[in-house]
Amino acid sequence: DWHLKENARDHHTSKFSSKELIVRRGQAFIVTFNGTEQPEQNLTFIAETGPKPSKLAKTQATFGISSTVSKESWSAVLQSTSSNSVSISIYSPPNAVIGRYKLSVQSTSGDSSSPASLGTFVLLFNPWSSGDDVFMPNKAECEEYVLEEFGIIFAGNKNHINSFGWNFGQFQGDILNICLSMLDRSLNYRQDPATDLSHRNDPKYLGRVLSAMVNANDDQGVLLGNWSGNYAGGKSPSSWTGSGEILQNWKKSGFKPVRYGQCWVFAAVLTTVLRCLGIPTRTITNFSSAHDADQNLRVDEFYDANGNHLDRAADSVWNFHVWNESWFSRSDLGPSYSGWQVLDATPQEESGGIYQCGPASRNAIKEGDVDLDYDCPFVFAEVNADCMYWNYDPATGKKTLIFSKSTIIGQFISTKAVGRDDRVDVTNDYKYEEGSKKERDIFKKARKKLGLEDKFDPTAPTPQEIDQKPDISGKFKVAGPLAVGKDLNLILVLANLQSDAKTVHVNMTAWSTVYTRRPVHEIWKDSISVILSPNEEKQFPIKIPYPEYHQQLTTDNTIQVTALCHVEGGIQVLVQRDITLDNPAIDIQVLGEAKVNKEVDVEVIFTNPIDMELMDCVLQVEGNDLLRGILEIDVPPLKASEKSSTKFKLIPFETGPKHLLVNFSCDKFSAIKTFKMVNV
């Protein structure tokens, strides 16, 4: 008798839907077995994991019954005996290897019988135990970062943050087994199973290995990335609403990479896997996130004379990027670097020859200690890099600096609040205040540690280029709703900063982009020439009608508008703005009270906001403990301005606050998402 209910309750594993015992390390669990006539002192237990268990690799433990628990090693203490059964409390050390164990018992009284197998159990990390590397003293944080199956991911851009719900579903169905098989499919395991298993007691090792396994690069991992804007042959990254479907599909296909992921999908799946194994984990969104490919803490962007953003640099600045933070101690670096650690499963740059990233101590990032393991320079650049904008002439290969900025990268770094559906800003945990002396000192310290201070860099702008002052300033103002289906109205504002008149030739373009700001389709272009009187400000309205942009729009609903201003006798001025358009709203109503095992009706209401018919309408619904799997409903075509109502039934099977996630797609709108909290 594995005492499944009591053990699960004591070990915070009740949410798993398994018939197998699942417990956490560094804490006792009870087993009762019968058929023992000999004295209890003569029993020896064997707990072993992996294909070749050994004491040396810490994957096998042999222990008898002792009078007290040992904190350092596996031990067993007698709880009670009756005429034909015995109850034993088994304790695993807080640094035990995690995974699936086989438990056997052997009698040592005279006859050397072979051990009798009692069965298997799964051992996980234990954030509730003070001896564990992942110990998290705050219980509410343990609830959120290990036990919560619903999350909110922030996206959009720095001017316009939006969010959507995600079903992590770490306790559902077969997810634990899929997470364990993920470990057995890693490159490290394939190369040397015994060594890999012996390191599975270490959260920093597993975090790094899993950051590689969640992407398909190198190891046939879970998700194949695609940032092209064309997602034929798979599902568009924005169409997923939870990790469960992705992990199940990976297993069902015989572990072939699932198509397709982008950063938040990689991060959400890694959150599921790490929470499942017991490592406290959350998703983090960084707005205006730098991808510094050449480790010079600088990102270079190139524009041609017409103002087109050229896709020619390895560096880029993403509207947003999502990664993970996991909570554990860093015995390799020292206590001041323990706590939140950055892990990133999005395949951006190789680390140690494969696409993996982290763990990078968040404290090390804040203090500019970029020489510490792992991948600190890359993460430091994501939130701190300087930005250089260049005019590039493809005919001659000549580049001219337009301007440089040190304050635009790494803004509004966001995560979901503990126990609430709100955004919390953690920017100050990554860096000192932008523009402060301390922040610049840390940046210099990081440059020095990377050897950038003393090295001449022929690609860097000269001090003269950096110091040059423009004669005019410009900005794009939004003059109307930013919504898919509506015309896009902007105002280009140009101001003469000098006391003599200036003639300006302006080349303007608008491109649809993916959220990484990679240009996909040209939508619009125009050019104007203006004379600005001394200190004059002029406004130029711009209108891009919906029919002109809707076919070019990617599923990210993002448009980059650029104006390159050639000032006669002065330096060029680049004005740009990244625009994220909102999808129309969709509404969920729960009709009546939600009770366990009772049917309740749900209605989803959507109104077509445009004067075209919507075809291929599909509604996707998921929610843990509310329905099993994913419900897909085909919705009839919707005429212009028509309102649709779709009803379906739920039979909730657990009490408490649950989240229902809805995703509506059609030929004109992709992935209109919302969620609703349902109190069962």
UniProtKB/TrEMBL annotation:
Gene3D superfamilies: Immunoglobulins, Transglutaminase-like. This is protein-glutamine gamma-glutamyltransferase. It catalyses: L-glutaminyl-[protein] + L-lysyl-[protein] = [protein]-L-lysyl-N(6)-5-L-glutamyl-[protein] + NH4(+). The keyword Transferase applies. Belongs to the transglutaminase superfamily. Transglutaminase family. Its EC number is 2.3.2.13. The keyword Secreted does not apply. The lineage of its organism: Eukaryota, Metazoa, Chordata, Craniata, Vertebrata. It comes from Pygoscelis adeliae (Adelie penguin). Keywords: Acyltransferase, Calcium, Metal-binding, Transferase. Residues 255-347 form the Transglutaminase-like domain. Ca(2+) binds at residues 384, 386, 434, 439. InterPro entries: Ig-like_fold (IPR013783), Ig_E-set (IPR014756), Papain-like_cys_pep_sf (IPR038765), Transglutaminase (IPR050779), Transglutaminase-like (IPR002931), Transglutaminase-like_sf (IPR036985), Transglutaminase_animal (IPR023608), Transglutaminase_AS (IPR013808). The active site is at 263, 321, 344.
